[in-house]
């Protein structure tokens, strides 16, 4: 099926524009998978070549995918809560974050250039540091206040948009390498944090400044090899992306508003167990603890300082398992499971009221339906059971944060 350049450009602009909406995630603030097919298999995709999301999963896979375009969206539905007890009633509270539905688009395009080379682009988002707690529950001595003794509503929002042009080259008919420059744009806002003004090096740049923006350029490298007719392996690595500072929040994030994207790597294997059944497994490492704004302990120093207080997130390991069964000529079924470390520690519970990235397990299902010879429709479903973390509050007493998640995604694709 021929796909016009005008249609490709229109789809790309739609995906890029839509990705500016808040994106939300499950392994910290990374997604458990990129592309609806991967999401249906628990995110296992490093050794798979089945869609145009090479720039997010493994750049080397572009050499084996063929010409195609994938356009999808995921409806992400997190449910987040916090509570505080043991303060003698003065600051005890329990509140649920508002806005629990987010639509997150994704886009991928891949073009075969020769028998050995392919190029394309992936557009995707990260996020998940989003909360919207209503205010007015407490009186911290200066009238109605929110759960952290600030004025009005309380919350943060982090949006990361990544545009990843990709080039892949076959070193051998069954082995490829790939590279994706990562063009990253991020936005952040915080509000209702006035209660932390005494802890900031610059209280005027701590909260309530609306959205701040920054950009940066990173890199993702990949390898994919078909070791036999039934076994494929893959590896993908992205070093830490040095982002520009959020100048409007220089009194919140460590090092004057610095907020980089952590180093991450993935290795995977896919095994064709039978003619109709493929099993896949990935291991991923995300270096949250090596980014001061995220990894510094809450008590590491004044907010915005160097060193400055952070969210206390630790580096995490993620294990992903997936199965894909070709049920018939027009139907492919998928299932998966992801197990992730929890980056949030009980010793740093108070700042993570704003960013309760506590999820551990994700159960997924998915399918692809062939609509015609060169078009298909895929869907995925994810459920993550509630996880709760409890620790000593910086305001006294004991605090808890918890979250559970569901997500439903749909993706249309055409091959050419």
Characterise the protein shown here.
By secondary structure, the chain is mostly beta strands. The chain has one domain: Beta Barrel (Porin), CATH 2.40.160.60. 8% of the residues lie in helices and 49% in strands. It contains 6 helices and 17 strands. It has helices at 5-18, 36-40, 54-57, 62-65, 254-257, 292-295, and strands at residues 68-85, 93-96, 102-112, 117-133, 138-139, 144-145, 154-172, 175-191, 212-226, 231-238, 264-272, 277-286, 316-328, 331-340, 361-372, 375-392, 398-415. Strands 1-3-4-7-8-9-10-11-12-13-14-15-16-17 form a 14-stranded antiparallel β-barrel. It has a two-stranded antiparallel sheet with strand order 5-6. A hairpin with a 4-residue loop joins strand 11 (264-272) and strand 12. The protein is elongated and about 70 Å long. The termini are close together.
Q: Largest sheet at a glance?
A: 14 strands, antiparallel, barrel
Q: Could you report the average pLDDT, rounded to the nearest whole number? A: 93
Structural class: mainly beta
* Number of β-strand runs: 17
Instruction: Tell me the radius of gyration.
Output: 22 Å
Q: Supply the CATH class.
A: Mainly Beta
Uncertain spans: 1-23
Overall 3D form: elongated
Cα separation of the termini: 5 Å
Strand content: over 45%
- CATH level 3 topology: Porin
Please bin the fraction of helical residues.
Answer: under 10%
